[in-house]
User: Fold this.
Amino acid sequence: MATTGRKPNAVPTVWKRAYWLDLFTGTTWKEFIEAGASVSGFPESRWKTVQQVHLGDYLLCYLTGISRLIGVLEVVKAPYKDSSRLIWKDAAFPCRLGVKPIEILTPETAIPVLDLKDSLSIFDPEKNPSSWTGYVRAAPARWKDVDGETIVQAVLEAKKHPISRPFDPKKLARRPFALKSRVGAVTVPESEAPDEPGQPIAKETSAHSEFCDSLI
Assistant:
């Protein structure tokens, strides 16, 4: 019987593209671009999740600090580990995926995620207005297909008809801190930091995608 399951190290019999969040700070995005925009990396702690990503899946690139969607990448090389090629200066991010850009924007033309609040399911009018931020604190994280498709179309449209929006360079350069949690390390934006921050973890895990970057 055909299956659409997406278990680690297993190629689904019936393939369907999945959409995954990929987080970047202003610094790690710049380093990614300068390295050829061909490899996306994640911390060692995310290896199990990275293995669930398949060829042909799309990575939805989210720029922390200024909370903007800056690109879409297609996975063209299966998950692998590599610490020998140095791409990011603050951490190795050894759990990697080979990628190729479907479309890439600039920080100026990237799409403020709040511009899509009427189209994305992460914005629930019945919940706390800030509850959506919980969806952009870990990567890779699988998103609903409908949300992924919405973001892809928005990025393609933004490339065809770019709108330059000013932003605060200090926010783009900001690195959110991370906390230990039941599921690992999660990041908390400065503006939403709890009164009792708990146990800070190493800066290495607060530089780029997954339980390492966040937004606002």
Summary: Residues 178-216 have pLDDT under 50 and may be disordered.
